[in-house]
Amino acid sequence: MELLAFGKTGWGDELFYATLMTIAVSVTAMLIGFFFALIFTPLKLSKNKFLNLIGNFYTTVIRGVPELLVIYLFFFGGSGAIMFVASMFGYFEYIEINAFITGAFAIGIISGAYSTEVFRGAIQSIDKGQFEASKVLGIKKHIQFYKVILPQMLRLAIPNLSNVWQITLKDTSLISVTGLVEIMRQSYIAAGSTRDPLFFYSFAAVLYLLVTYFSMKLINKLELKYSRGY
Amino acid sequence: MDFELMINSLPKLLNATVITLKLLSASLFFGLFIGLLFAVLRMNKNTIINKFAYGYSYVFRGTPLLVQIFIIYYGLGQIEYLRSTILWVILKEPYWCAIIAFALNTGAYTSEILRSAFQTIKPGMIEAGKSLGISSKIIFYKIQIPIAIRQSLPAYGNEIILMLKGTSLASTVTLMDLTGVAKYIISTTFKPIEVFIVAGGIYLFMTFLVHNTIKYLERKFSY
């Protein structure tokens, strides 16, 4: 227990902040993922073959390639790509991007591919009559989406989105390889300096379980809220 | 685009793919047994056994695979007692540590897949078997298992693909699998995009093969 003391003698406060960092990265990545899903879900549902191909390419490639490989691409390629753009504007200094942004972006792209699939499935399982009925009632297209389709879609999507959240949360452990101090990285540092890896990695596992447990409770509440009337 | 690098790195990456495939097949093999065992335990009427099996799958599905590998590879070596037993021969090898972690992880997911497959079997099938005077052991092997396999094929196919991607974590415990070699080439040449395309292409090809094999099997076993 001494090892977990707060303050200078233990690793309690460090691990606490690392847990907050894990939550922050996961939430950011999830939101970036939603942004990608917002772009790619319409592409996947589009009748245009070319747009369809782009949508399928994104979800197939990202879901078929290991997360770690995607993270390495961003970690090693991220600053290179930005420096290339900067060099076109005559800036040749070395640019280092923040590990948080690189990590959240890499995980966000992965999370987005899963979210896209969830949204696509949810929209496709909404009864065709709902679209037709709102059309007959003369509801405008964007109001139809926000007031008719979206509420029904969320109800169907939330259980699957909670899976995506769990995947995203666990994937953030992989950005420890880029040096961002989240649960995994902090445990690695603590394990190295105390020579007690068994304790710290087991404790990391407990922290992940706690985050999962409490976030699932929150999601269940959301699920109840959106399934009112069913 | 450095096409020369892409062509030069292809043989090295293909060589590393062999290790990835070895890790994958060994983990799936042991994972299937672990999964079947825990699926059976989950359906046991004894609450303690039941809770134990549930706890196993909850812990292994709720924590990142990276933590599990690190606990087994770095953590278990810390226990003095283990170092003196015969188990140490296995546990000091990163290769076997990775396989143990992968097998335990995929075992947890497989147990969930098999459990839900067993639960979807209509009670009428088992009752029919019983009324024909077939022993419950044979009902399990000849009726429940074949139906469960058919039911769980699509989900198990996804699990194989997840595990294929999971083997990339072996590179974090010094194994030179496909991702490990890819990272090495990237860090020596600083050409991440080229290497990503080749290594990612190999992974995608394997995913494609798994996907189509499962689809073929689904059609073959459909009734």
From TrEMBL, chain A:
Parts of the chain that traverse the membrane: 15-40, 69-91, 97-115, 198-216
Residue ranges constituting the ABC transmembrane type-1 domain according to the UniProt record: 15-220
CDD domains referenced in this protein's UniProt entry, alphabetically: TM_PBP2 (cd06261)
InterPro entries: AA_ABC_transptr_permease_3TM (IPR010065), ABC_transp_permease_HisMQ (IPR051613), MetI-like (IPR000515), MetI-like_sf (IPR035906)
Record key words, sorted: Cell inner membrane, Cell membrane, Membrane, Transmembrane, Transmembrane helix, Transport
Any GO CC annotation of this UniProt entry: ATP-binding cassette (ABC) transporter complex
SUPFAM superfamilies in alphabetical order: MetI-like (SSF161098)
Name of the featured protein: ABC transmembrane type-1 domain-containing protein
Cross-referenced PROSITE patterns: ABC_TM1 (PS50928)
Subcellular localization(s) per the UniProt record: Cell membrane
Main location: membrane
Topology within the bilayer: Multi-pass membrane protein
Molecular function GO labels: transmembrane transporter activity
Gene3D superfamilies reported for this sequence: MetI-like (1.10.3720.10)
